[in-house]
Amino acid sequence: MRKTYTISDLASEFDVTTRTIRFYEEKGFLKPGREGTRRVYSPSDRTRLRLILRGKRLGLSLDESAEIVMMYGSPRNNRKQLEKLIVRIREKQTELKSQQKDLEFMLLDLQEAENNCMATLTRMDSRKSLQEKT
Fold first, then answer.
1. Which domain, by its residues, includes 55?
2. 74 and 41 in contact (C-beta within 8 Å)?
3. Which of 13, 55, 101, 127 has its CA 20 to 30 A from that of 71?
4. What's the pLDDT tens digit per position in 51-69?
5. What residues contact residue 62 under an 8 Å CB cut-off, 6+ apart?
């Protein structure tokens, strides 16, 4: 017997709202069946949701994730999907390393600005103290 999932099952398992799952349905990433008015998700839908959320966690855009997710279930043991994912991961790593360098420079600039402000305040306090003594 094939396992199926309700929208609540998936929302609970992946810690997302049912609205999030419906959003992915609207985008065409998930295609649940129906049992009366209930949505019934297949193991394939569950895997697609897991892949979408993994892409989000990795910092991929929804379009980037969609491209990879839509390859799910393709012939040849998903090799093409994995190769595409590796390309996206490498691109994201390059982007994040660049942002990391930018952040490091910004932090240094902020530290220098803070040091300059602190030095100015110290000089101001010293002058004030001298003026009060005279």
1. 1-73
2. no
3. 13
4. 899 989 988 899 888 887 7
5. 27, 52, 55, 56
DSSP state of 15: T
Query: Is pLDDT above 90 for 43?
Result: yes
Place of tokens 């004030």: 128
pTM of structure: 0.67
- CA neighbours closer than 13 Å in the CB half-sphere of residue 40: 8
- Residue 22 maps to a domain: yes
Instruction: Please report whether residue 105 resides in a domain.
Output: no
What single letter denotes the amino acid at residue 131? Q
Count how many domains the chain has: 1
Q: Give the pairing type, strands 38-40 and 33-35.
A: antiparallel
- Tokens representing 75 are 């012939």
Q: For residue 51, what are its two tokens?
A: 């892949």
